[in-house]
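can u do me a favor
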């Protein structure tokens, strides 16, 4: 009996181990979900999408994010 071992490679899988943070222009090493620590916070706050693109109301959200961060520090 012989079995064929076929490797099935799905072709639209996003590589998890990318060398850089997904945020545009950031060169830090990704630590979580493809982002560096800082940009993961941004992602959580809704500042950037998981592709690393800025939200439409980025400026507004960033101000809110920055001020809430200052308070908790
Ligand atoms: Zn980053």
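np, heres the sequence
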């Amino acid at each position: 009996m012989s079995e064929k071992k076929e490797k099935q490679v799905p072709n639209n899988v996003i590589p998890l181990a990318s060398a850089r943070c997904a945020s545009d222009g950031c060169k830090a090493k990704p630590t979580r979900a493809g982002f560096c620590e800082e940009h993961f916070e941004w992602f959580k706050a809704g500042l950037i999408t998981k592709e690393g693109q800025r939200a439409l109301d980025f400026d507004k959200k960033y101000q809110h994010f920055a001020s809430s961060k200052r308070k908790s520090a």
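Helices lie at 37-44, 58-72. hope that helps!!
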